[in-house]
Amino acid sequence: MASQRVLSGVQPTGNLHLGNYLGAIRNWVEGQSQYENFLFIADLHAITAPHDPASLTANTYNLAAVYLACGLDLNHSTIFVQSHVSAHSELMWLLNCVTPLNWLQDMIQFKEKAVKQGENVNTGLLDYPVLMAADILLYQADKVPVGEDQKQHLELTRDIANRFNYLFCRENPVLKLPNPLIRAEGARVMSLTDGTRKMSKSDPSDMSRINLLDTPEQIQNKIKRCKTDSVRGLTFDNSQRPEARNLLTLYTVLSGKTKEEVAAECQDMGWGQFKPLLTETTINALKPIQEKYHAVMDDKGYLESVLRDGREKAQAIASSTLSQVKSAMGYSLPL
Ligand code: ATP
Ligand code: MG
């Protein structure tokens, strides 16, 4: 039986941080041999907030190199850039015309980001979930790894696919309904400056996150200055101590130890003893990724060949779905 197909992507909107790695990319890497993976750099999604063209190009390159540096294996995973496959934009238009406006206005992320962006809300921000539906449906994906923040959008993707199939191809549905791929231990990493908020690329303070490409000195400085409390002895399970829980969780995941081992090791420690331990563990965990990243970035020819091959494989599948969609909608005059 053919493997199930998984589709996922990250926006090239800034520095990838430990949350992106531990919550997303590392899970793709660990599960990759069980599935046929299509993993893309979501550069069309990256312009729903005002953007700088030169940074978009640089970030796209960097993110492709990060994917490889984190251990994606080209035998199982196709890596490509979203804008290289024009079917994403084209299918989005077709799906726009079957998506009721009020479905989009109800999306929580739209409401939240619209408030953040204030005067600068473009139509793309509202329409983002339809582009995401196009991304997923083009590849007839079986599974989509989703964090809490994307569950509602995946539900919408299923609603759009259902509506399309019902309107245009009830007998022979063209679009496959995707299911969420929820991984039990997908770590949610919190901000270094506030243990109740998630670590995020768009947080204006770089001190709030550890970026995958931070130098050992930066990592040391960020952990030294991160928010803690004045209680002695470190525990996971005190809801009054979100920073303790977050930093212990980071230490657990990055050291490869179990929660029980870490709880026993750290129960009598103070922050002055724990912070250097976490610093060293983080630096060591990121070192191989950083070395591979620099090797890939030094060989642009290789990186470009990966993206070219990825585009070819992605395009073959995407254009087949797109032509079925168009023909179901009545775009079927012979040339
Ligand atoms: P932005 O602030 O611009 O939304 P982000 O840091 O949330 O950026 P995304 O590009 O939105 O990053 O998300 C990429 C992937 O990383 C998604 O799968 C998302 O669920 C995951 N992710 C993002 N932040 C965290 C976090 N703090 N902990 C775990 N997973 C995370
Ligand atoms: Mg996000």
TrEMBL record:
It catalyses: tRNA(Trp) + L-tryptophan + ATP = L-tryptophyl-tRNA(Trp) + AMP + diphosphate + H(+). L-tryptophan binds at D135. ATP binds at Q11, P12, T13, G19, N20, G147, E148, D149, V189, K198, M199, S200, K201, S202. The keyword Ribosomal protein does not apply. It is found in: Cytoplasm. Its main location: cytoplasm. SUPFAM superfamilies: Nucleotidylyl transferase. It comes from the Bacteria. A motif ('KMSKS' region) lies at residues 198-202. The keyword Cytoplasm applies. A motif ('HIGH' region) lies at residues 12-20. Keywords: Aminoacyl-tRNA synthetase, ATP-binding, Cytoplasm, Ligase, Nucleotide-binding, Protein biosynthesis. InterPro entries: aa-tRNA-synth_I_CS, aa-tRNA-synth_Ic, Rossmann-like_a/b/a_fold, Trp-tRNA-ligase, Trp-tRNA-ligase_bac-type, Trp-tRNA_synthetase. Its EC number is 6.1.1.2. GO terms for molecular function: tryptophan-tRNA ligase activity. PROSITE patterns: AA_TRNA_LIGASE_I (PS00178). Homodimer. Catalyzes the attachment of tryptophan to tRNA(Trp). Belongs to the class-I aminoacyl-tRNA synthetase family. This is Tryptophan--tRNA ligase. The lineage of its organism: Bacteria, Bacillati, Cyanobacteriota, Cyanophyceae, Coleofasciculales.
